Amino acid sequence: MISKDIVKEVLELASMIKDPHFRAISYARIGYELFLLRNEEYKKAFTKAIETTRQIENPVIMVKTLIEIARYLGKAKIPASAKVFRQAFEMTNAFPNPIHDELIEDIVNALSELEMYNDALFYAFEIKDEIRKSEVLLRLLVSYVNKGEIRKAHLVLENISEEPWYSIAAIEVLKAHLKREEFGSAIKILQSLKSKYWINEAMKEIAIYLKNYKAPKATFEKFVDVALSMSDELSFDALRNLLVGFGSSGEIEFVLRILRKMPLNERIKTLIELSARIIENDQLLRELILHLDKEEFIPVAKFLLTKLLEKPDKRYTRVVETIGVRTSNEAILVKVVTFLAKVGEYNKALHFAHRVTDSHLRSLAFGSIAVNLLKEGDIDRAIDTALEVKDPKWGSWLLGELLVKILELAGSKEIKDDLEKRANEQKTLWKR
């Protein structure tokens, strides 16, 4: 227990503070400390704090002082705090903006600190400037969400009129509904968003939830349908990220079912991104290729073959064979042949090369096999392969190229892998 003499002395010393603002605040702080010490003199200290405010000449400083006194009264759980906050608020009506709104915001902040959110909300509605009001209401909304008071959060949301505060607030409420598995409410929030950027941000939050909490696929499909209905505003980035995530975890058929609801260009972007993500998994790649539609197949196959040819690896043989079996596109078949030749699968490469009918592309297909045979020192088989190109011009060109490469090999030089480049140059010359 603190002695009466010390309390008396502290109060007397406080009375000697000349500035009434600081004197009033000091009395309030002393009152709060005495309350914590369970000393009944706290009432006297708070009374002196209120009385001292009457000596403050500047009305704005007086209001600020009352707010601070009310804050300490609130910390001490003294009901009189509400009366002092009300007194401060009534005095703000005499001030023009922005002073009026600044003081109201001070009241709201003090009440929020005391977790008296309902009182804070009452005063927040009195802010005149819509941007400032939206900022303050957003902070209160987050507090309600954190306390799990979602109905109150909705009430606040309905009164936020400015962007981006409305969208930020809406996403906070949407996240709360997701955590409570209130998907219908979350969808309504998503549909209320107008900005492409914030729709995208909302979809990211939905994606995070669905992935982390393993929500049913049917739930995901509902969100996708809503997102697609808003496609004029949606950039598809978040949806693409989500689908790629699902595909990477092995949900190829499910992802493709969802993708069929999207425009073709978005579908192809997503499939190429998914292909890049799962490129280390040859089994998933093959499953993806087997399920592609005709219109999706060519761009994805071209992308994949280009990537695989950067560093040919025999473990992708079945993937590349599957591409070859599924296509009649001769440019793609050439890439299939080139890959198979590079990994030493010559019989398979020849099988696909024989399907190429265009003279230029046929020379590239058989030429790639011949060059790789040369690299292994199999000159006779390389020449026999080159002779498979029956077109007089292209056959002659390829044989000439091959003979030069035989000499490169004889001179212990590294054989240049430039057949496609030289063929394109030759084709350009013949067109002149």
Describe this entry's structure for a reader.
- There is one protein chain.
- This protein is mainly α and 432 residues long.
- It is 75% helix and 0% strand.
- It contains 25 helices and no strands.
- Helix 8 runs antiparallel to helix 9.
- The relative contact order is 0.03.
- The mean pLDDT is 88.
What labels describe this entry?
25 helices; 432 residues; single chain; mainly alpha; rod-shaped
Q: What's the structural blueprint in terms of helices and strands?
A:
Elements: H1 4-14, H2 20-36, H3 42-53, H4 59-75, H5 80-92, H6 99-113, H7 117-124, H8 130-147, H9 150-158, H10 165-179, H11 183-192, H12 196-212, H13 217-229, H14 237-248, H15 252-259, H16 264-277, H17 282-291, H18 294-310, H19 317-326, H20 330-342, H21 346-353, H22 359-375, H23 379-386, H24 392-410, H25 419-431
